Structure formats: C-alpha cells, structure tokens
Amino acid sequence: MTEIYRQVQQTTMELKDIICNRCGKSCVSPHHSDQTGKVTCYESATLMANWGYGTDKDGETHRANLCESCYDYVISACGIKPNIYDYVISPHGTKPSIKDR
Ligand SMILES: [Zn+2]
Fold first, then answer.
1. CA–CA separation, 63 vs 9, rounded Å?
2. Who is most buried in 8, 19, 61, 90, counting CB within 10 A?
3. End-to-end alpha-carbon separation of the chain, Å?
4. Neighbours of ion ligand 1 (CB under 5 A)
5. pLDDT single digits (tens) 66-88
6. Three-state SS across the chain?
7. What is the pTM of this model?
8. Contact of 40 with 34, CB cutoff 8 Å
9. Ligand 1: distance of its center to the CA of 20 in Å?
10. CA atoms within 13 A on the CB side of 67
11. 52: closest CA among 43, 42, 44, 62?
12. What are the tens digits of pLDDT across the range 21-65?
C-alpha cells in the first residue's frame, strides 16, 4: 500500500435554526422533532438571487429566509402570484404537481 492516511479531526456543522430575515423569528416547525426533542424540520421560504454584470450588486449572491407569515405578507404585495405546487408522494419518489388557485 503506497497511500498513507492520517487521522484528522473534522468538525461537522449541523443546522441549529433558520431565522426569518424580515421579523427575526425562528422558522422552526414545532410539530417536527425526533425522540430526543431535536428539531427535524424548518418551514421557511428562501429568496436567492445571483446578481450579474451590470447590476448594482455585480457578482454578489444574496440569500434570505422568510417565515410563513412574512412570506404571505411579501407575496400579498406582488401583483402576480407564485405558482403553487402540491407534492405528490408516489412509489417513484416525490414529484411536484402544479395546483390551480
Ligand atoms: Zn418572519
């Protein structure tokens, strides 16, 4: 064997919380935790933008999270509503299906 490995200590990161960028509240879902009480689900909307050449934010990536009520507030200010999908669970996996509202 010509490859020699050494043990290194690695630090792993675990998601602790998602904070809403608008109101500052936690986006934790109170109904989703494992047997130890560890939260296993967060409910949030993610806004992400990659700003390209010629914009005021040239080359920047912006990312923000919104809780459900802040998401509803922001969406209510939009003239065009977002596409809404239902997730259908099938033997072949979870697939989105568009929903008319
Ligand atoms: Zn919020």
1. 30
2. 19
3. 63
4. 20, 22-23, 67, 70
5. 999 999 999 999 999 998 888 76
6. CCCCCCCCCCCCCCCCCCECCCCCCECECCCCECCCCCECCECCEEEEEECCCCCCCCCCEEEEEECHHHHHHHHHCCCCCCCEEEEEEECCEEEEEEECC
7. 0.70
8. yes
9. 5
10. 16
11. 62
12. 999 999 987 677 777 777 667 889 999 999 999 999 999 999 999
Structure token pair of residue 62: 């912006």
Q: How many CA atoms lie within 13 A of 55 on its CB side?
A: 11
> What spacing in Å lies between the alpha carbon of 73 and ligand 1's midpoint?
9
Residue 93 in tokens: 């996996």
